[in-house]
């Protein structure tokens, strides 16, 4: 359940955060980005163990270098250690790492591994990606959206109209949960049978109703209304490359490609992508590289600052206030 104040004990899933916590993290990320020198000892003497079951570029580099910028030390534990729970119990893994590290960052296949780590660790756990959520990405994305659409007042995010077009996945789950939390207008557009679970849809609707946000889900790309920003992600999630015949999948998803025509139809001024991009599939090369629309590298940079805000809030909360 969401906590009642801005203090964090873990950073596991968007729906375990409150609106106040999300807003505080966004503001802190922007502050650290603007004045990193004020935080260069925020994690002095702290060590963070980073578990990676899946390959990574942005997550690995942004955490490693972000921790260094905060004066801390990061230890990378890669795929050579195998899947959590196979070589040894998740509970044992968590308890052992808690003996050495001040926090655990984990990029894993299954949310159950994140939950197990948090249950048994005596130090904070950060979800760096699982099958259900990608809260670090969503937080970085809303830092980016705040910089563009709400630079003077974070409450202006309630006026934001954001659409996600493509495959329903962990990124879209976290985005729509965080949008609902902040009261933004969020439209999810996925091909039939490629949307989120009904439980996830119900959860988002409930949060949006409470916050005053608006959420809609459709499988009809022609129903896209006017948007401020359009977001997309790869049509084939990492680890699922062989789940469906590639030619059939590309044919099914082709109408959902994000391109200049779709941007014009929706009158959107910003296109977003968490990367890696499969160019000419979910997004055209021309749009991805179009600096008049694309903020993909601003998003990528903000991964570091957003995650820095999370770690400072967990390990040095006095500096976060």
Beta-strand residue percentage: 5-15%
Q: Please work out how many helical segments DSSP would assign.
A: 12
The main β sheet shows up as: 5 strands, parallel
Q: What's the CATH class label of the largest domain?
A: Alpha Beta
Query: What does the average pLDDT come to?
Result: 94
Unreliably modeled segments = none
Secondary-structure-derived class = alpha/beta
EC number: 2.1.3.3
Enzyme class: transferase
Pfam families: OTCace, OTCace_N
GO molecular function: amino acid binding; ornithine carbamoyltransferase activity
Would you give an account of this structure?
It catalyses: carbamoyl phosphate + L-ornithine = L-citrulline + phosphate + H(+). Keywords: Transferase. It comes from Litorilituus sediminis. Pfam families: OTCace, OTCace_N. It is an enzyme of class 2 (transferase). The protein is α/β, with parallel strands linked by helices and 321 residues long. It contains 12 helices and 9 strands. The chain has 2 domains: 143 residues, Rossmann fold; 163 residues, 3-Layer(aba) Sandwich (Rossmann fold). The longest helix is centred in the last third of the chain and has 20 residues. Helix 1 packs across helix 5 and helix 6 packs parallel to helix 7. The strands form 2 sheets. Strands 7-6-5-8-9 form a 5-stranded parallel β-sheet, covered by helices on one side. Helices cover 42% and strands 14% of the residues. Helix 6 links the parallel strand 5 and strand 6.
């Amino acid at each position: 359940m969401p906590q009642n104040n801005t203090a964090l004990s873990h950073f596991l899933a968007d729906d375990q955060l409150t609106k106040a916590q999300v807003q505080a993290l966004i503001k802190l990320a922007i502050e650290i980005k603007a004045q990193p020198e004020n935080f260069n000892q925020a994690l002095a003497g702290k060590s963070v163990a980073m578990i990676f079951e899946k390959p990574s570029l942005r997550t690995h580099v942004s955490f490693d270098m972000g921790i260094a910028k905060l004066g801390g030390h990061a230890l990378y534990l890669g795929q050579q250690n195998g899947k959590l729970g196979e070589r040894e119990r998740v509970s044992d893994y968590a308890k052992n790492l808690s003996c050495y590290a001040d926090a655990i960052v984990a990029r894993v296949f299954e949310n159950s591994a994140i939950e197990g780590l948090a249950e048994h660790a005596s130090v904070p756990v950060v979800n760096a990606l699982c099958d259900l959520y990608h809260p670090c990405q969503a937080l970085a994305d809303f830092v980016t959206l705040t910089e563009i659409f709400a630079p003077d007042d974070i409450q202006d995010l309630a006026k934001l109209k954001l659409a996600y077009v493509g495959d329903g996945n962990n990124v879209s789950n976290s985005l729509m949960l965080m949008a609902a939390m902040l009261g933004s207008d969020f439209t999810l557009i996925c091909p039939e049978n490629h949307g989120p679970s009904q439980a996830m849809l119900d959860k988002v609707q409930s949060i949006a109703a409470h916050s005053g946000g608006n959420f809609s889900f459709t499988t009809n790309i022609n129903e896209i209304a006017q948007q401020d920003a359009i977001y997309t992600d790869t049509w084939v999630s990492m680890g699922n490359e062989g789940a469906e015949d590639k030619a059939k999948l590309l044919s099914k998803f082709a109408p959902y490609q994000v391109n200049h025509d779709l941007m014009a139809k929706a009158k959107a001024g910003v296109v977003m992508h968490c990367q890696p991009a499969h160019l000419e599939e979910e997004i055209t090369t021309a749009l991805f590289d179009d600096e008049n629309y694309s903020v993909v590298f601003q998003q990528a940079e903000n991964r570091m600052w957003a995650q820095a805000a999370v770690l400072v809030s967990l390990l040095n909360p006095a500096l976060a206030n």
